[in-house]
Structures are given as C-alpha cells and as structure tokens.
Amino acid sequence: MYRILDESEGRIVGIRVEGALSAEEYDLLNAYLEHLMQEVGPINFLCDMTTVEGENGQALWEEMTDHLRNIQDYQRIAVVGNRRWLGGRPHVSVSWPKAQWKYFPADQTDEAWHWVKR
Predict the structure, then answer these.
(1) Minimal CB count within 10 Å: which of 27, 61, 87, 108?
(2) What is the per-residue pLDDT across 64-85, written as a single tens digit (0 to 9) for each?
(3) pTM (two decimals)
C-alpha cells in the first residue's frame, strides 16, 4: 500500500510505502506519475519507507525500481528508510543516467524533503 504525501506539489512527489504494492497499485502510481511528467516535465521523487521493516525493505525497494516506469527520467530521488535494511545506500537494479538519488535515515525526513525540493 502507498499514499501520496501532503507535501507533494508541482513536480515534487512524495509517497509513503507501507508494505508490498499490488500490480493495480503500481499501475495507478505509474499512471499518476506519467501524467504529472507530461504536465510539468521531470519530477523529483521522495519515497518514505520508514514503516517497512527487515529484509522486506530491500526486496520492496528492488521491486519498486523494477516496476516504476520512467524512474530513470526523474531528476532527484530521495529514499527515507531504515538503515538496517538499506545499509546506508539503496541497491539500484536499473541504470539511472539522469537521476540523482540519496538515502536519508528516518530521522532526516525534513532534510530529504529539502533535498528533493532544490
């Protein structure tokens, strides 16, 4: 399950992921993000995964990078999560030639928002 965060505005999109996403949820999220990119151009993306625990976090992040279409065209990607599963840096299973990405621990959510909004 995911939800779009209230801080999202313009080309800045934040989501909170609270567990595995279904195929339908990926379809809805991709449609939303693709429509937004058509309207405003490349987006900056914040993915809050602070509620995901254990090894599920790494598996979910890898799944998301495989299922989010056009992620390689995002400008900035901030991942907020639990250092235990991220190990300080998320695994990237795709090439992101255009996107900058950065990991933020759960207690630095405000800094993550600041970074994606620059």
Answers:
(1) 87
(2) 888 888 887 899 999 998 765 5
(3) 0.87
